[in-house]
Request: fold
Amino acid sequence: MMTMQTSGDTVVKERVISKLKEPGLYKVVFLNDNVTPMDFVVQVLKDIYHHSEAQANAIMKEVHNNGSGVAGVYTYEIAEQKGVETTVIARESGFPLGIKIEEE
Reply:
C-alpha cells in the first residue's frame, strides 16, 4: 500500500509493507489406554487421518509403546475438528480413546 503526503513542493512517498503470518500448526495426539482395541485405532488413523495401513500400524505401536503418538499435524481448526471427530467415533463405539491437541 502506498500513501502520499504533500508538503509545499515536496512529495513524500511512504510504502507500508504488511506481512501475513502463517497459521501455527498443531499436533493431534492419541493417548494410550487399556481398553481401546489396537485395530480400532488403526482404522481411525486410516479413515480420519488418511494414513496407509503401514503408517497407521506404526502410529498405533508408538501410542501403545510410548503412551502417546501423533496422528497428524494441521492448522488449529483442522486439528480440533479431527480430534472431535475421533472422540465422537470412539465414544459411539464405547471406547475411551483420549485425544489432545498440542502446538507444534
Remarks:
- The radius of gyration is 23 Å.
